[in-house]
Design brief:
Elements lengths: L2 H24 L4 H9 L3 H26 L8 H17 L4 H13 L3 H41 L3
Length: about 160
């Protein structure tokens, strides 16, 4: 079987799976009601959210590029961004699979070894956790009273 036919079959199979999943997810919906709700959406907020999300994901790609650079790799930003977007998509299907998939994509398109890219991902996660811990401590120190008040009013014993 030729490579072109294989690619075409892959596209058809995955597109069919997508249609099936879409049907299963929305088969009980009243699309007239859904359409009325879509008409009432404030598109300014939707567009602003999309712009901010793209900026955030692109900055993550740039951060990953900074981690790969000392290892001697200079991948294209679009490949890093695309791999991050695919990571989020794969995480919806199989949670936490995205980190491995994004490294696999970079390995395929940029020829960066999996060990090197996985190492940068682990480093990125460690730094993220440290920043999260530091921010949590700062919030507790400066807003501890507010947090304690909220918890005392909303805690269920």
């Amino acid at each position: 079987m030729s490579e072109k036919i294989k690619k075409t079959l892959k596209i058809i199979v995955f597109f069919s799976i997508g249609i099936l999943l879409f049907y299963l997810a929305y088969r009980g919906q009243d699309f007239n009601v859904l359409w009325q709700e879509v008409k009432n959406v404030r598109w300014t907020w939707i567009i602003l959210t999309i712009i901010l999300c793209v900026i955030g994901h692109y900055s993550r790609a740039l951060r990953w590029s900074l981690l790969l650079e000392p290892l001697g790799y200079k991948p294209k930003s679009i490949n890093l961004f695309s791999s991050i977007m695919i990571m989020y998509l794969s995480n919806m299907a199989i949670p936490r699979s995205g980190e491995f998939i994004r490294c696999g994509i970079i390995n395929r398109y940029e020829k960066i070894p999996l060990a090197a890219s996985l190492g940068t991902v682990v480093t990125e996660r460690i730094v993220d956790m440290l920043v999260f811990i530091i921010l949590t401590i700062i919030v507790i120190v400066f807003q501890g009273g507010v947090i304690a008040d909220f918890l005392s009013k909303n805690a269920e014993y």
